[in-house]
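Standup notes
- DV: blocked on the single-chain target, sequence here:
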Amino acid sequence: MSLKAILFADLKRQYQVAGQLEKEATFFRLLKSSFSPRFMPVVLFRLSHWFLQCKLSPVAKIFSLVNFVLFGLEIAARCEIGPGLYFPHTQGTVIGANRIGDNATIYHNVTLGAREIDLDYSTASRPSIGDNVILGAGAKILGPVMVGSNARVGANAVVVDDVPVGATVVGIPARIVKQVSST
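- DV (later): unblocked, structure below
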């Protein structure tokens, strides 16, 4: 997917979440929305990731640093994140996942990362997040776990084991409180 296409998909998701489905994602709206505190962090991440893919690591790091300074969002440029990313709030969020699927909603103070210090960013020690997942405020997803598609992680939950598709987990350590059948 091209940078332009993924940004338009992210913008369309912003409109869906805001209940403004009638708005078309045009270039003018993309530019205007880029100054929103909910959308600009997504744009900065996408640019950081794009520059890293273009083998321009120093430029990618600049965009990551700007995201951290302006929005308190520390997000690894190496992380693969599908279209439709949405941050209702960003402060204190750390994203060092292996991959995050489409249409993820990530609230503030969420941490996705390894259980131990991992300066080499080994994907084998990092979580993978499915499509249409909601990560509640303060949630921690640590280690090589898989959070299945359509799962919900409650506020302040600590996930150290896999979360099945369609499950809602809460608590420390996180436990399943609701399971939607996948049929």
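- Follow-up: The chain has one domain: 3-179.
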